[in-house]
Design brief:
Elements: E1 2-6, E2 14-17, E3 27-36, H1 39-46, H2 49-52, E4 59-60, E5 64-72, E6 84-87, E7 90-91, H3 97-100, E8 111-112, E9 124-128, E10 132-135, H4 141-145, H5 147-157, E11 166-170, H6 174-185, E12 190-194, H7 198-207, E13 212-214, H8 221-228, E14 234-239, H9 244-252, E15 254-262, H10 274-279, E16 284-287, H11 295-306, E17 315-320, H12 324-332, E18 338-342
Parallel strand pairs: 11-12, 11-14, 12-13, 14-15, 15-16, 17-18
Antiparallel strand pairs: 1-2, 1-4, 3-5, 3-9, 3-18, 5-6, 6-10, 7-8
Length: 343
């Protein structure tokens, strides 16, 4: 089969002919129909410090995908040949304290599909049964490929109620755009979208026509949000950019008894005034990691069934797998929405 392989500890990757994976007794073999590029794939391709400390070449990377099951292991019971599946990327052990107390996404022995194991940028992928989310017949493969990052956004938004509340989303990359659409669909009364890339702010406008758009390079977020909320601040702030300054701003624009969800991975330590921005406000600060297994996936399914938000509108570019380098280069510029690859 054809696969995009990180062959060495350096920039780039190669499209190679490799063996089709051999599955184990609790695995399924999936014919990949669509795969999406994530920020971590960019890090792996560009060989950033994150990749240097984590990746062990050779590796078929990519983890956001959907496809058709063409073979099942002898002990697989919940998935059958012909099923259409999306992939939950956390491969949990099922036996540690976290797994046994409802936090499988925080498994102490977790492996990540496409990071610690071979993944999705290939014609076929070996996927553990425990990671398969079965899709209804007729579900778009494109939609299946973006459910994993959509789940990150939904987990961040729905870590607490947003219905009737004001929500500020810091960072309008693909997951931020998903968060804006999800916040509106789940009943947010007022939405603020903060982003420095004009093209992404325009996409936010399409998803939430009533959103207040803020470019922090041109406007002061604190002044703009406080004026728009009569000095009260927002009820909910979702930080998705990973920018240290943005994380600090998310705390500052938060109103009393508000909630901050930190989703983006910060590029360094976050400076804060604990008394003014947290203690005096009785603020709630929540870390968000991945998706709750499988609560978030059910929330995503409910979101889609509402018909109030089409996450496929966030997909802006599609490439054949052979053009992976061009696709990743475009994703690196941070001007596109979600980018899909097709084996």
């Amino acid at each position: 089969m054809k696969a995009v392989v990180k062959t060495e500890e350096a920039f780039g990757a190669e499209l190679l002919d490799v063996d089709i994976p051999v599955i184990g007794p609790r695995d399924v073999l999936v014919k990949v129909k669509a795969a999406a590029i994530c920020g971590s794939d960019i890090y792996i391709y560009n060989w950033t410090p994150y990749a240097h400390g984590r990746i062990k070449p050779p590796l078929i990377f990519g983890h956001e995908m959907s496809g058709e099951v063409i073979e099942t292991g002898e002990h697989v019971t919940s998935i059958k040949k012909g099923d259409i599946v999306a992939v939950e990327t956390h491969i949990s052990c099922g036996s540690c304290h976290q797994c046994q107390t409802g936090a499988r996404h925080l498994c102490r022995n977790v492996a990540i599909f496409g990071v610690d194991t071979d993944g999705a940028f290939a014609e076929y992928a070996r996927v553990p049964e425990v990671c398969c989310w079965k899709l209804s017949k007729g579900t778009s493969y494109d939609l299946g490929a973006i459910l994993e990052p959509l789940g990150v956004a939904v987990h961040g938004i729905m870590a607490d109620d947003v219905n009737g509340k004001s929500v500020a989303v810091f960072g309008c990359g693909p997951i931020g755009l998903f968060a804006i659409g999800a916040a509106a669909a789940f009943g947010a009364a007022k939405t603020f979208a903060l982003e420095v890339v004009p093209e992404r702010l325009a996409m936010a406008r399409q998803l939430a026509p009533d959103a207040i758009l803020i470019n922090p390079k041109e406007q002061d977020p604190l002044t703009t949000i406080m004026e728009a909320t009569d000095g009260l601040g927002v009820n909910v702030a979702i930080e998705l950019s990973g920018n240290v300054e943005a994380a600090g701003q998310a705390l500052k624009v938060l109103g009393h008894s508000g909630r901050v969800s930190l989703v983006g991975v910060p590029t360094g330590p976050i400076e804060l005034n604990a008394y003014k921005d947290i203690i005096r406000k009785e603020a709630k600060i929540l870390g968000v990691w991945g998706r709750l297994m499988w609560q978030t996936w059910w929330q995503v399914q409910n979101l889609l069934s509402m018909g109030k938000f089409d996450p496929l509108s966030v997909v802006t570019h599609r490439f054949p797998l052979a053009d992976y380098a061009q696709a990743i280069e475009l994703a690196t510029k941070h001007e596109a929405g979600k980018i899909l690859l097709y084996p």
